[in-house]
Automatic annotation (TrEMBL):
Residues 8-143 form the TniQ domain. It comes from Sulfitobacter faviae. This is TniQ family protein. Pfam families: TniQ (PF06527).
């Protein structure tokens, strides 16, 4: 049993005060430096920050306050970079944010109700640490940033921090316009105080449920603005409410909201990121391997499979689609060469299509329609064939001259010699494993423009992609078909240009295979794990390391990056990451040297059961 006597000089804790705030004020009341205070009394400040129960109990006894309240509102450090606060689990980075927020009205009341100086009286409440808490329910005042500090000890020494801003708080300089409480605000407060209720969202961990509300609310902002990402951070509360008012009612309500977003301007070829901004990106990348988000990912995934004309190889929340389940009138028209208006009439007559939406979204079962579509497929003249693939006539002519597009029939007097299915297969082959592009940032060029810059034929670039010599291919969400295919120009230049050495610089090779920093590649070469070729730089005339063909082959025979293993195994990098973690396969790091996210090919292939032959 702990036997600690209360200190002669104490300061009363306020409701919901955190242990670090109370310790800082207690040290100040005893006129002792916070670090020395903890050292002398055997309660190191770091252990208080970690929420160690025995340390907080001693602190409470010294301060003459309730240790259960301090514990509940302070948070406890757990394994795996997690913290528990109010019975809920959070990622450490959210609870340990460098920014400390608070309600200035509460802080002014702290100062006015105490005889001590304001910086000694103002206390940080535990619920202010929860990122989705945006308002003080007692005063209907938004939480405002108080200070931002990256250094841990300084961040939580509240007396020192308040010393510089307390006069401004008392003077009302931190006050903001009050707003009405939302249903989300009230639900979150109840959850923190009383625990989960009986609603659908209460079936899920609080942080994940709240984050999903924010993500869905962000996507729903498409009803209000074409740029949801431009919403002011101070309006985060509105996005949380927009997501909560839908999510609280469960999966059916959520899928209805997802469908309404599809009814807004926008086509499937733009990709789910454009239709569900923020929501799709976060669930497909940031939270792809986080179990708490699996139920929300499942709702979005099922909805996409049931309503989107996804083709084999398309990205579905970070995983490639294995086969087409749904066709749209547009996709079927493109694959068969039948005019969309005629296609719709025939599908409706056959009882296959019952969807009044426009051609891009009017979907039907691909398997059920397969016999009809096969019977309707017709050869096209060059003009219709090129238009169906999103090519200009000049682009089509160049690719045809280069031999990468070939007619179905030769030596014939008819113009209808081009098979639309082969054309679509050509486009699909170039986009397999392509990186989604929202915009063509520096370095990305369309195939035709990259070829023009290098004074080479576009067919040369196409062949290089098909042969694996050009690996970075982008799929631009604003375009469809051939127009959407972009390449990373520096890689193309290194692979095909006659102006420079017939090799890639280390920087370009690193970008091509997905190594984060060229320094890792340089380190790999210097330590003898792979080879490079010394070639004179044509501009600087200096000898430098390049990756010639032989070096590239040797590298790929020995190593994988997430990008190259994803392509080799036909799985997303998120899936590969999970598989490797389960098999205890770790990045290549002999002698503890960091080479980035680089893996031995043999270990990866063995772990996922890959047939190297």
């Amino acid at each position: 049993m702990i036997n600690v006597a209360p200190l002669p000089l104490r300061t009363a804790s306020v409701p919901r005060e955190t242990a670090f705030s109370h310790m800082s004020r207690l040290a100040a009341a005893n006129k002792v430096d916070l670090r020395d205070f903890g050292f002398e009394l055997g309660i190191p400040f770091q252990r208080i920050l970690n929420g160690e129960r025995d340390m907080i109990r001693i602190l409470a006894l010294l301060g003459g306050t309730d240790h259960e309240c301090l514990q509940h509102w302070s948070g406890t450090k757990l394994a795996g970079r997690r913290h528990e606060l109010c019975g809920e689990i959070y990622p450490a980075k959210t609870i340990r944010s460098p920014e400390i927020r608070g309600c200035p009205i509460c802080l002014k009341q702290d100062a006015s109700s105490s005889e001590r100086s304001p910086e000694h009286s103002m206390a940080i409440r535990g619920h202010w640490l929860v990122p989705h808490v945006t308002i003080c329910l007692a005063h209907e005042h938004p939480l405002v940033p108080l200070w931002r500090e990256t250094q841990l000890f300084a961040r939580y020494d509240t007396v020192t921090q308040f010393r510089s801003i307390a006069p401004a708080i008392v003077a009302g300089e931190f006050d903001r316009e009050i707003r009405e409480l939302t249903d989300f605000d009230k639900w979150l407060e109840t959850r923190l105080v009383d625990g989960p209720g009986n609603g659908w969202l209460d079936l899920h961990p609080l942080h994940a449920a709240s984050t999903f509300c924010f993500l869905l609310g962000s996507a729903r902002m498409r009803h209000e603005t074409t740029a949801p990402s431009d919403v002011d951070p101070e309006d985060r509360w509105a996005l949380l409410q927009m997501g909560y008012e839908v999510s609280r009612h469960g999966p059916k309500s959520i899928t209805t909201a997802l469908q309404r977003l599809q009814d807004l301007p926008g086509d499937p070829h733009q990709g789910p990121k454009a239709i569900y901004p923020v929501l799709y990106d976060r669930l497909s990348r940031d939270y792809a391997d986080v179990p708490e988000y699996a139920p929300f990912r499942a709702i979005l995934r099922d909805h996409l499979l049931e309503t989107w004309p996804l083709n084999a190889g398309d990205d579905l929340l970070g995983e490639p689609v294995e086969r087409r389940r749904l066709h749209s009138v547009r996709s079927a028209s493109r694959e068969t060469g039948i005019d969309p208006r005629r296609m719709r009439k025939m599908l409706e007559s056959a009882g296959i299509l019952n969807d009044v939406r426009h051609d891009a979204w009017a979907v039907f079962d691909a398997d059920a329609a397969a016999p009809l579509l096969d019977s309707l497929t017709t050869l096209l003249p060059a003009k219709s064939f090129a238009e169906g693939l999103g090519m200009s006539r000049s682009q089509f002519d160049r690719l045809s001259e280069d031999g990468v597009l070939a007619p179905k029939l030769a030596d014939t007097t008819t113009k209808n010699i081009w098979d639309p299915r082969e054309g679509q297969a050509f486009i699909d082959s170039l986009l397999a494993g392509a990186e989604p592009l929202r915009q063509a940032q520096h370095g990305w060029e369309h195939i035709s423009k990259s070829a023009a810059r290098l004074k080479i034929r576009p067919g040369d670039i196409v062949k290089a992609i098909q042969q694996g010599r050009v690996r970075r291919v982008g799929n631009h969400s604003d375009f469809d078909g051939y127009k959407a295919i972009y390449v990373y120009h520096d890689e193309v230049s290194a692979a095909l240009s006659d102006d420079g050495p017939a090799a890639m610089s280390l920087e370009i090779f690193a970008k091509t295979v997905g190594i984060g920093q060229p320094v890792f590649l340089n380190r790999l070469i210097s330590n003898g794990h792979t080879t490079a070729t010394l070639i004179r730089n044509p501009r600087t005339r200096a000898m430098q390391r390049y990756f010639a063909e032989v070096d590239s082959v040797q590298f790929h025979e020995k190593f994988y990056t997430y990008r190259t293993m994803s392509r080799a195994h036909g799985r997303s990098w998120q899936q590969m990451s999970a598989l490797l973690a389960a098999a205890d396969v770790y990045p290549f790091s002999p002698d503890g040297i960091d080479y980035g996210k680089l893996f031995l090919r043999a270990e990866v292939d063995s772990a996922v059961g890959y047939d190297c032959g």
